[in-house]
Amino acid sequence: MSEKQAEVQTQACPVPPAVDVNPWPLTVATYNIHSAVGTDGRFDPLRIAAVLKEINADVIALQEVPLGDSRRESVAAVLKQATGFHMVEGPTEDRADRRYGNLVLSRYPITCTRTIDLSFGRREPRGALDADLDCHGHPLRIIAVHLGLRPAERRDQIKRLLQEFDTNRMPVILMGDVNEWFVWGRPLRWLVSHFEAVPAFNTFPSRWPIFALDRIWISPRHRLTRIEVHDTPLSKVASDHLPLVAHIDG
């Protein structure tokens, strides 16, 4: 099977000059919301919104988000209204009958976005949403990702994703559902070699988590002060994943 090159939609993204207002520390989170269908089988976007309010993060990367189509309301729109945050969508499927994919919500303005197609052969379409934020003049790059289920698929996706990183321009946070079940799998080793090791916590399945599928990395590594799982009665039922939360300092 031939490798498909990453398709990147991009635009000029100037780095804003820093000002005196200090945005640090920041709280960021990643959360696979399972199409807003909870472990009780109920579709409830407002329950996901309530979990986000519990977390009270400044920047949130979401996966498996219904973005609005002919069959179902836009969960993205519900979450944007509930949080009042800036929002950018990164659909991995974009048809009249189905818009679905990644989402970034940010307390701070989103100045530039790029989408990276990480689809692999005939597998389910996958991608990354790459966004630059202006945190009171301090630039921050967020890459929200959802990788595939097969090992060969993830290896291909990580190779292509790592080609897109320029960690010298501004701090970079990579977060999302990497679907890596093997602690010493090659995709995780490649990411650690690029970002340095960070703690891993079990987030799936939400009721009895035994796998660390959801991860957060940052470059430079020293700015990461703490990672934790948001494990509450509400988060255990709202999705089949638990949210993962990280605290970033300047």
TrEMBL record:
Gene3D superfamilies: Endonuclease/exonuclease/phosphatase (3.60.10.10). One of its GO terms (biological process) is GPI anchor biosynthetic process. It comes from the Bacteria. It holds the Pfam family Exo_endo_phos. GO terms for molecular function: catalytic activity. Residues 29-241 form the Endonuclease/exonuclease/phosphatase domain. GO terms for cellular component: membrane. This is Endonuclease/exonuclease/phosphatase domain-containing protein. It comes from Oxalicibacterium faecigallinarum. The lineage of its organism: Bacteria, Pseudomonadati, Pseudomonadota, Betaproteobacteria, Burkholderiales.
